[in-house]
Design brief:
Layout lengths: L4 H28 L3 H8 L4 H33 L1 H20 L4 H15 L4 H9 L5 H29 L3 H20 L19 H9 L2 H17 L1 H14 L3 H52 L3 H11 L4 H13 L5 H33 L6 H22 L3
């Protein structure tokens, strides 16, 4: 017992730091969400049409940069360790938020968002860190804690950003920069390295890109199937952020305030499940069954959104949808045990790249589905959620293949 006790405490401390790191990063990211469109609107002379076009450019640029650079930063963490990549990315983001806060024109703002896309591509590295310091049987619960940290950041961030933006549209960026810089200082003195030199891999450009990551994953049938599941799940996820306000307003006449409350409920339910229920579900049913529980909950939730005939049905969908997050924790846990220790950064970078790649297409998919649905009847305002339910149903064969494939 004396031999394991000293190792357990550093692991717990490292896990706690990573959870706090992700929460602060997501809090800072969420803070700027409500005010960035306003800055774009100001820089385009108040033209809503031009602002909408530029906002699409900003979102696409951010996603494209993450798509290409997430594998690079993941592979760098496999070569040099997780700690320097996490710390340098945090410091870069802190400087970038200050750059955006001082932006005198639209091009400066666009350059700031490009830098933010590069630095934020390191969001995959904390997951690799978790795989380094957490025993395989506890990884699903640990990944659930990461998901909960994401949820807390996205619940509180937009609220803080909206309040601060009411004082000055640039103030949220200063707050985000201060939080990120504080996180960098915290990590500089507290965060230990999780990847010892003997477990590191050489950095190779042929692997540090989306194609190289795909080739690495292709060697493992279970991993390949889980990536397919991830693609469809990531696509399905984005129907809510892209169309939920339009859906609530068209279907039930909800204003922005009620939609905000509903989205907070989505976040709170996600945090409750990710932080408190995933560990028990995985222990009780195992990772493979947990994977199906999560996907099934997602299908049920999106189907309820699509056919909701009363407001309470939407909140029932929110409650069921909280359990959808089980798929992600179970999937990442299985993946982390499928891939070698010196490729964990590359794996997590590949997942982040997949996520960013999906974000390039989802605005057109779900806004198009909404426009088509309401052109027929407002009762079809849930068309984007119906698309999400279909995507998750198509993901079931991938989940089945992943749980049956040799690892």
């Amino acid at each position: 017992m004396s031999a394991t006790a000293p190792q357990t405490e550093p692991r717990r401390a490292a896990l706690a730091f990573i959870v706090v790191t992700v929460m602060l990063d997501m809090l800072a990211f969420g803070i700027v969400i409500p005010v960035l469109p306003r800055l774009i609107l100001d820089f385009t002379g108040g033209s809503k049409t031009n602002a909408a076009w530029w906002q699409g450019v900003f979102g696409t640029l951010f996603a494209v940069i993450q798509f290409f650079f997430a594998p690079v930063l993941g592979a760098l963490s496999d070569r040099f360790g997780r700690r320097p990549v996490i710390l340098l990315s945090n410091f870069g983001l802190a400087l970038d938020y200050a750059l955006i806060a001082l932006a005198p024109n639209l091009w400066w703002l666009l350059a700031g968002r490009a830098i933010a896309g590069f630095c934020s591509a390191s969001i995959s590295v904390p997951s690799a860190y978790i795989a380094d310091v957490t025993p395989p049987e506890k990884r699903a619960a640990a990944f659930g804690m990461i998901g909960a940290a994401f949820g807390v950041g996205f619940i509180l961030g937009p609220f803080i950003g909206a309040q601060a933006g009411g004082i000055d549209p640039r103030l949220p960026f200063w707050i985000a920069g201060a939080l990120t810089l504080a996180n960098f200082c915290y990590g500089l003195f507290v965060l230990p390295e999780s990847l010892p030199p003997e477990r590191r891999a050489p950095f190779l450009w042929r692997k540090a890109n989306p194609v190289g990551s795909a080739l690495m994953i292709r060697r493992h049938p279970a991993a390949w199937a889980l990536i397919g599941l991830s693609v469809l799940s990531y696509l399905a996820h984005d129907s809510l952020p892209h169309t939920f306000f339009l859906y609530g307003n068209a279907r039930f006449g909800w204003d922005q305030k009620i939609v905000g409350y509903a989205l907070v409920a989505v976040g709170v339910m996600s945090v409750i499940v990710q932080a408190g229920a995933i560990g028990w579900i995985v222990r009780r049913f195992g990772e493979r069954r947990a994977l199906f529980i999560g996907v099934g909950a997602g299908i049920g939730a999106f189907a309820l959104y699509a056919v909701a005939w009363a407001e309470w049905v939407v909140f029932l969908a929110i409650a069921i949808g909280g359990f959808w997050g089980v798929w992600s924790a179970a999937s990442q846990s299985i993946l982390s045990r499928t891939i070698a220790a010196d490729e964990q950064g590359q794996l997590q970078g590949a997942l982040a790249s997949v996520r960013a790649g999906c974000q390039v297409f989802t605005p057109a998919i779900f806004n198009g589905a909404f426009a088509l649905g309401v052109s027929v009847d407002t009762r079809w305002a849930g068309a984007p959620m119906l698309v999400s339910a279909v995507l998750l149903a198509l993901a079931l064969p991938f989940a089945l293949a992943a749980t049956r494939a040799p690892r």
